[in-house]
Design brief:
11 strands; Immunoglobulin-like
Length: 134
């Protein structure tokens, strides 16, 4: 049992550690109608000597019912995500009541430290508000 718990702690730390990669979302609120979509910008801001790989792919996963998120455009600079350009994320809503909803989501990515020579899986949570009109 102790080995299983230790293994779960290690795996969890590998997936939750972001090691100098921060998620930024703009705008903070988007507007859309049920059944339609809108696009917002997501930026992975990496620290000095850190880059985010394009493979395995960056993922965005909604944690809110009635909302689907997908990457519409992933800016690349060679094998890396271009740090100077935002990732375009498409947001589709269906079955939500009119009003403002906070949408929580998970961003998954692989990042590497050039100076130390390692790569890790990163995972961070973020949110955006969507204003749903009738």
């Amino acid at each position: 049992m102790k080995i299983l718990l230790f293994t779960m702690i290690i795996v969890n730390s590998l997936f939750t550690q972001t090691g100098g990669v921060k998620v930024a979302v703009k705008p903070e609120t988007i507007e859309l109608r049920n059944g339609s979509d809108a696009v917002f910008d997501l930026k992975l801001e990496a620290g000095e000597g850190i880059h985010v790989n394009t493979r395995p792919v960056v993922i965005v996963e909604s944690q809110s019912k009635g909302v689907e998120l997908s990457i519409k455009e992933l800016p690349k600079s060679g094998e890396y995500v271009d740090p100077g350009k935002p990732i375009k994320v498409q947001c589709k809503a269906a079955g939500l009541t009119a009003g403002v909803h906070r949408i929580d989501f998970i961003v998954g990515f692989t990042y590497c430290n050039d100076n130390e020579g390692w790569c890790r899986l990163g995972r961070d949570t973020s949110s955006i508000e969507i204003r749903v009109s009738k």
